[in-house]
Amino acid sequence: MTSYAISPAPVHSLPIQGDQVRFPVNRIFCVGRNYSEHAREMGHNPDREPPFFFMKPASAIVADGGEFAYPPLSNDVHHEIELVVALKTGGANIAAADALGHVYGYAVGLDMTRRDLQGEAKKMGRPWDTGKAFDGSAPCGELVPVARAGHPASGEIRLDVNGAQRQVGDLADMIWNVPDTIAYLSTLFTLQPGDLIFTGTPAGVAAVQRGDRMRGSVAGVGVLEVAVV
């Protein structure tokens, strides 16, 4: 039996709809600017160029009904509502035609972003980690297995804050759909079981404040509710 100098980190996991077992989370990949209108609002050309990715640690997950702790050293923290893909199997150079066979299920997620720190990093040509990969930056709801959700390719994706609509779009508006995203990502990384992919956000990203209540939803997948504290 292997022994360790310190206690190993805990396994981070998500609940699965209708099941007592949980889904262990390995890595979290996020697709940047994957909706045309969001690309425009961020000042970029929405033409279909190769996708780019950034990562968050599994420890950044906040459960549905949980609390998002407003991070220190920031004054401009934004919400980004996303469809999350959970992989049951992995591999390298996966063909787009085979990609959906690797999917365990889907969830509603939030890519919380320290926009001020991200902006500073961009100006200085530095990585985005402090703006994207901070504690609590990946709220995520329960997983809905493919057997229940199918593979949603269209339908409303929405975020309300304090009961008022902030973001709304349609999954069909993704520049890179789920199969193409998995296929492209697998040329950069050997994907593994337990990996999550946050698939990008529609337009309407904006700041949150302490005391706000966020409610995100994806048609056919579910709802995610998180309080900002």
Q: Quick summary of this structure?
A:
The chain is α+β, with helices and mostly antiparallel strands and 229 residues long.
Describe it.
There is one protein chain. The chain has helices at residues 36-41, 96-99, 115-123, 129-132, 146-149, 178-188; strands at residues 13-15, 22-24, 28-31, 53-56, 61-63, 67-68, 77-79, 81-87, 103-110, 113-114, 138-140, 144-145, 156-161, 164-170, 196-198, 206-207, 213-218, 222-228. 17% of the residues lie in helices and 33% in strands. The longest helix has 11 residues, at 178-188. It has 229 residues and is an alpha+beta fold. The chain starts with 12 loop residues before the first strand and ends with a strand. The chain is built from 6 helices and 18 strands. The mean pLDDT is 95. The chain has a single domain, classed as Fumarylacetoacetate hydrolase, domain 2 (Alpha-Beta Complex), CATH 3.90.850. A hairpin with a 6-residue loop joins strand 1 and strand 2 (22-24). The strands form 5 sheets. Strands 4-3-15-8-9-12 form a 6-stranded mixed sheet. Strands 6-18-17-13-14 form a 5-stranded mixed sheet, with no helix packed on it. It has a 3-stranded antiparallel sheet with strand order 10-7-16. The protein is globular.
